[in-house]
């Protein structure tokens, strides 16, 4: 039975990265956080326009999860029609260095990412059998995360 927060953490997560991913994991959460960092305050439709590939239901769910995690604040104004705005909390703003590093990495490697995704899996595999096996595992992991 855990006696303090550190012991509780050790019981729930195998490492700090797992704890971080528990909070920001999800296909669109980091993208939402990025746009809120860039814009400070956004309404739902503004967020939707920025990530128009995501279904509305998914965006709504991920916004709720980010709010429950204490990363974003949802402000509802008492007017008709209702006005709702989203912004980062100080806890959410603490993710800025991570999100900026993700943005920079993506900018630096975008051509490689596009090329990698454009290749047929068999064309991308090396000739060596053990390397092929490792590559198949990596491709399966990437494909699993895309779904």
The structural domain count equals 2
CATH superfamily heading of the largest domain = Winged helix-like DNA-binding domain superfamily/Winged helix DNA-binding domain
User: Gyration radius, to the nearest Å?
Assistant: 19 Å
Structure class: mainly alpha
How are helices and strands ordered from N to C?
A: HHHEHHEEHHHH
Overall pLDDT level = 81
Termini distance?
36 Å
Number of helices: 9
InterPro entries: ArsR-like_HTH, HTH_HxlR, WH-like_DNA-bd_sf, WH_DNA-bd_sf
GO molecular function, one term: DNA binding
Domain HTH hxlR-type: 15-114
Organism: Phototrophicus methaneseepsis
Verbal overview:
The protein is mainly α. 66% of the residues lie in helices and 10% in strands. The chain contains nine helices and three strands. A three-stranded antiparallel sheet has the order 1-3-2.
How does the SSE layout of this entry go?
Layout: H1 5-12, H2 16-24, H3 29-39, E1 41-43, H4 44-50, H5 56-68, E2 72-77, E3 83-88, H6 90-93, H7 96-118, H8 121-124, H9 129-146
Antiparallel strand pairs: 1-3, 2-3
Helix pairs in contact: 3-7
Domain HTH hxlR-type: 15-114
Keywords: DNA-binding, Transcription, Transcription regulation
GO molecular function, one term: DNA binding
């Amino acid at each position: 039975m855990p006696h303090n927060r550190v012991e509780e953490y050790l019981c729930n997560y195998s490492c700090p990265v797992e704890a971080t991913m528990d909070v920001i994991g999800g296909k669109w959460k980091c993208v939402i956080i990025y746009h809120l960092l860039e814009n400070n305050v956004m309404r739902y439709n503004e967020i939707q326009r920025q990530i128009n590939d995501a279904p509305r239901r998914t965006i709504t769910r991920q916004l709720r999860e980010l709010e429950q995690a204490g990363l974003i604040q949802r402000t509802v104004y008492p007017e008709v029609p209702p006005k709702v705005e989203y912004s980062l909390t100080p806890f959410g703003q603490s993710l800025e260095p991570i999100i900026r590093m993700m943005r920079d990495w993506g900018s630096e490697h975008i051509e490689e990412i596009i090329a990698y995704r454009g290749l047929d899996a068999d064309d991308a595999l090396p000739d060596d059998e053990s390397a092929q096996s490792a590559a198949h595992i990596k491709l399966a992991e990437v494909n699993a995360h895309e779904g």
